[in-house]
Amino acid sequence: MAHMECVFINLLIMYPILDFQSYTGIQLYGIQLYGVQLYGVQLYGVQLYGVQLYGVQLYGVQLYGVQLYGVQLYGVQLYGVQLYGVQLYGVQLYGVQPVMYCYCIFS
Description:
Elements: H1 2-14, E1 17-19, E2 22-24, E3 27-29, E4 32-34, E5 37-39, E6 42-44, E7 47-49, E8 52-54, E9 57-59, E10 62-64, E11 67-69, E12 72-74, E13 77-79, E14 81-84, E15 87-89, E16 92-94, E17 102-105
Parallel strand pairs: 1-5, 2-6, 3-7, 4-8, 5-9, 6-10, 7-11, 8-12, 9-13, 10-14, 11-15, 12-16, 14-17
């Protein structure tokens, strides 16, 4: 899983656009993302610790069982985002725009 984790982080840093990818059990610690665009990304059981997102755009993103710890979102735009069983701990939202449809299902 460590290899998968590294690949995911490198993809986010190297390529500003992720298209129709699926990731499971990813853990991100202290990651900073600037102007990242995610298209049709599926995240399963993802854990984010102290992650900072700046000007991030999410299109058709699906989050399953995601846990967010101390995450900061700046100018984030959500398009057709679906959240299933998402847990938020100390999350701060700045200028977040839930554009189009954003389904939030906390179970």
